[in-house]
Each structure stands twice: as structure tokens, then as C-alpha cells.
Amino acid sequence: MMDNENSNLISVITPTYNRGHLIERAIRSVLNQSYENFEYLIVDDASTDNTQEVVNRFDDQRIRYISYEENGGNAVARNVGVQNARGDYIAFLDSDDEFLEDFLDKALNRLENVPEASFLWSGTRTVNLDGSYYDRIWVPQTKKHPNQFLYELHVGIGRGFLIKKECFIGLKFDKRLRTAVDTDFLIRLRQNFTFTILQEIMLNIHTQPGSVRANFSEKKKSYATIIDKHKNIIDNDPKLSRKWYYKLFWLSLYDNDFSLARETYSKIRDGKAKAGFLYLIFRIFPTNQAIKLHKQLSR
């Protein structure tokens, strides 16, 4: 354990919306950290349930509750947390997940011992409703810099990240996005900073019943925005062009936006036959059936 009295302040941020029935577990996991020099910002994005009541049950001066009257989305809530953070480091925790008690201690120790790194993530345990679980520590296979995460990204900001506060100078979560917020942010974070990995299981991710059905319209918009931000890089790399434009292509089909699908198809260099076949499937079959066929063919 590090000497907390002479150490850096860590700001833990939990954005939340109507998670009063779940957030207590997350709060306890933060308050039970072996590393004690932290502040805990809970950003309530206009909840209409008992979230504030649950937060108020905890008598700990390190908790800072910030409430907004109008729902702005995950990106806005995270930006508000960062703007109000006083710490030298920022950690994010989703309101239905929990840190293991040594996360802050081990994550900070790792970053301070890898001076060239400005952020890290850890391993996670995903816990299912029936109590079964699986562990994962993502170690990238690609070594490209600084556009590495355009090629490969299999982790989200709520998956055991600790980030130096200085990284947020000029870098925010894109409030235009309602999905793929993490993807967009991490691509840009990696373009400017270097990472290390805490290769231990440090976070429990809890699956929840009744997940909201995928909003393909929002996903389509988000990926179109991400492509536009990195268009010069993507258009000049056949591998990236194939990856990003094909994804936007099938998201457009999922959303019945055939106009954008045709526009995107014209930008796909490799795999036009595959894309053309998929386009015919969505023209012939009802959308739900076409989606099932696409998923079967993608296995």
C-alpha cells in the first residue's frame, strides 16, 4: 500500500441516471478502497428515482453529489465530473459496477512506476445474473502509434481506467454522441498519450436484466461522426477504410437508411461483393430477419 498522506489526490467519477437500486454497491466499493486520498464525484444526470436519497445515506465528506435537472447523456455527465474534479488523476466507475478494494492503490502505483504512461486500464470480471463470471485482461495486439485504437479497441472507459488529469486539457467526451462515447474518446486519448496496463482483475462488471435494445440510429450517427473526425487517416489506410466504412454501412442498413448505406458503399475499397450481398439481403427480407441473417453470416 502507498503512503496515502503524501500521495496524489484521485478523483473517482460515477455518472448515473435512475440507478438508485444499484448505485449503493458502487459507492461502497469506492469508500472501501485501501487508498484513501480520493474524492468521489457522483454526477446525477437528471434521475427521477431515489438516487439522491441513496447517496445521502452515506456520511463521508469525500462524496460530492452533483445533480442536473435536464438529462444530457453520458458524455455530458462525464465532462461535468472532470470539470469539477480536483484530483491529479481521474478514475471512472459505472453506477452498476464495483472496484476491488486495492484498485486505486495498485493503479496509481503502476502509473507512477511507468513515467512514460499517462493512462492505464485493468483486468475485469464480468458477473452474470446467475452468478457465473468470466475474467478478461485486454492486451492490444497492434503496436501502431498514435492511431492504435483506430485499428483495435476492446475496452471502455469504465473498465478500470486511471487517467492523469493533465490528459483532459483540450480533451473532452463528445456531447453529440449518445453511443460509442468511449470509443471516440479513447481513440483521441491514444493519439496524444501512452498507456500501460494493470494486468490484474480489479473491477467487477455486473450484467443487468432488461437491457435497452440497441439504438442503431444513434450508433450510426456516432460512427459517422467518428469517421468524420479521423477521415484523413481512415481514407488513406485500406485496412481502416474497410473496417470503419463497412461498419457504418451495416449500421445504416440496420437503421433502414439505404441512402447512407449506398453512399458508404461507394467508399468501401475492399469487400464490395460482401457488402453488395448484404445490401440485397436487407432489400429482400424484413429488417429483423435480415439482421439475424447478417449475424449468422458474421460468425
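The record above closes out task 2.4. Task 2.5 opens with a second protein, given below.
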Amino acid sequence: MKSALITGITGQDGSYLAELLLSKNYKVYGLVRRKSKLDFGNVEHIKDKIEFIYGDLTDQISLINAMRISQADEVYNLAAQSFVATSWEQPIATANIDALGVTNMLEAIRIVKPEAKFYQASTSEMFGLVQETPQKETTPFYPRSPYGVAKLYGHWITKNYRESYNIFACSGILFNHESERRGKEFVTRKITDAVARIKYGLLDVLELGNMDAKRDWGHAKDYVKAMWLMLQHEKPDDYVIASGETHTVREFVNLAFKYAGIEIEWIGKGVNEKAINKENGKVVVAVNPKYFRPAEVELLLGNPEKARSVLGWLNEITFEELVKIMINEDLNRVKNSLSYEEFIEAAAAKEIME
């Protein structure tokens, strides 16, 4: 039985990875920060199958302890301050976790079990102001946020430990990957949650920033398979993991409303752009400049050819299927949260269709 240590196990990626490894008969350890009450997050349904270890990426002693307890054969470093917008507000904390935290984890591996394999969660945000399209492993980096800069350090220190200490260390340069488990702070989940609440009369308007920003979106369940495949390959290397397609935020919004049964129409341009519900003429989407980034990343589009040819990895869930999965989950969640009186009131106002 192999053992694996996952940092960030209660998050979206950590939960899907834990499920995958458990299905392959791994002993799974999860690093969690000490709180007054442990929040199991997305692994609540499998918490009895995981051994949790208290630790923090900013505390190297706790990471050394985690390695000694788990004696992990594979370490997946998924923990991060992962909100791009927050990284401008908390640049030092972002650097301590997303940059120095990676070094702390690598040092713990080097000290306790240097033969362990290591996966680092890198990000397409490192490409930032893209130097070529599509982006691949050899594309020059140009991060446009403190988050992207910190992640770039983590990426390069992983490569450095691979070359300096012969540690089996890989970085997955993952493009945007979402799911129904994504936090509401992320734009995709913000959209599907808001559309569901608009559908059931609990929200009037969804406010967003740059509607023209283009992203390469896939489903997290597919992307964690790539993480595992990297550590099963005979040689450590870095891989771009992406769908190879790009879509605007506006396209995501369109599909979310479509699958919710609401037909919308766009009017205006720039900061004055709005989407109206064609049935009743109400504004349901508006642009709010406060959601603009200080330095915008306009286009991200990955080339996953290396991962496909070397690892045999494929993304199976399409963009359209991803949006449909997410909106259906939020529609069911919001509907089930309504009281009988709220449901009747919304139905009477023709906010929902039964």
C-alpha cells in the first residue's frame, strides 16, 4: 500500500485527489491547519478514510513532523492562498504560503524522506501577460499578480530541488479547473450560485468585472488525474494541464443562464454592459469596476499536447458539461434551501418553472 500526503486536502482539488487515491488503495494523509473546530470541507464524506495531521506550510517543523508520521511515498502540495484578488490585499501572506511554503515542504522531504515523490500545484497565472498563444511548458512567464509571482517562485524552487538534490519533483501548470465544489470566491462558482439565486428570486443582479477575460476551463476531477499520472511516470518533469479551448466570462454566464432556463440579452458596452431577462426585462447581470484587477490577465489558453502524449492524459468533461454540472448542483442546493413559503412566493412570481 502506497501512502500519500496531501496539503490543501479539504479544498476542491484535494478532495477529488483524495477520492482518486483512495480508489487506488492508497493510505491517505491530509495536512490541515489547527483550528478550534476542524472543518473537513469537501472531504466531509470521506473523513473517516483519511488520517489528518496538523500542520502549516509556513511552519517547517510541522511539515517535518507530517513527513515523519506519514512516511509518504507521494506528496501533493495543493495548499495555497489561491485567490488572485486577495493577493493584492495580502501580498506578504501570499508569498509566505505560495512561495516559501513550497520550499518548506521540499526541505521537509529532503530531510525526512528524499526518495518521496513531490507534486507542486503551479498555475497558468504564471503566464500572465502571455508571450505566445497557446501557452506550453517552454512559454516565457510574465505573472501579473502577487499570486502569480509567488506561484512562479514555487514552480522554480521545485525545479531547483529536482536538479540540485535529485528529488522526484514535478510541477503541474494547471489552467483553470472548476467544479461544483469550487468556493464561491471564484468567478465560475460565483456565477452559478448567483444564477441559481436569481432563478429562485433570492437575488436580483449578478455583478462581475471583466466580461471579456478569456480562460481555459476544465473540470477538477479530470485535472487531479494528471497530478497522479505525473508521479507515476519514470522521470520527473513539468506539464501544462489544460483543455486546449478558451472561453470568455460572458460565455460562461450565457451557458449558466441557459441551463437554468432563463433567456438573457446583452445590451451596452464596457462598464455599461448589462444582461436582461428577456421574459421580464429585468437586469440580471451588470459590470462593476470594483471587480477589475489592477493588472488584468486577458487571455489564457493552454497546449496540453505534452501531457497527452507522454502521460496519456485526457480531459473528458467538456466546457459545456462543466457549466451544466455546476449550475444544476447550485439550482438543487438553492431550491432545497428554500422554505415552503419562499418556494410558493417565487413560483407565484414566475421566477421558477416547475
